[in-house]
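Weekly structure sync, notes
Attendees: PL, DS, HV (note-taker this week)

Item 1: Photosynthetic apparatus regulatory protein RegA
DS walked through the input record. Source organism listed as Pacificitalea manganoxidans. Sequence as pasted into the shared doc:
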Amino acid sequence: MAVPDFDPKDIGEDRSLLLVDDDEPFLRRLTRAMEKRGFEPEMAGSVAAGKAIATARPPAYAVVDLRLEDGNGLDVVETLREKRPESRIVVLTGYGAIATAVAAVKIGAIDYLSKPADANDVTNALLARSDELPPPPDNPMSADRVRWEHIQRVYELCDRNVSETARRLNMHRRTLQRILAKRSPK
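Item 1 (cont.): predicted structure, written out as tokens:
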């Protein structure tokens, strides 16, 4: 992860950053990368730890994973919004879906990034001004991949029930079974 060309003054005087993720190697890597960029990160590996830090020492910035072992990262976002409304929060997840992105933004996240996102993506999202549009992604998901992600999300929400998923997607059950049996598109 190369350090981008940005002015550390863009961060501001309060450089506190809360990183919440249950993937410990990723969390350590991101912490080191964000320190190099001038932030003062604090790590949390669970919803409970993230909420405790957000309550005791609400940070100016936060990067919160959506799915954690002990719950939903949106609970941490809500706690941060209550304790420090001006905090800039980015939700990071490996399970990208439009519905969760909308929910994250509605409760106060400024951006939503799908994994794998590197420290440059995170820094750009945290420091982006609201009147600026972020640059387009370097490698956006293909339409086939977006469709596959949506089907997987509905399948999980239906507790992996093929018949219920097919009904909700208005799709024949056998067609859905064939799609689920294939590998994910790139």
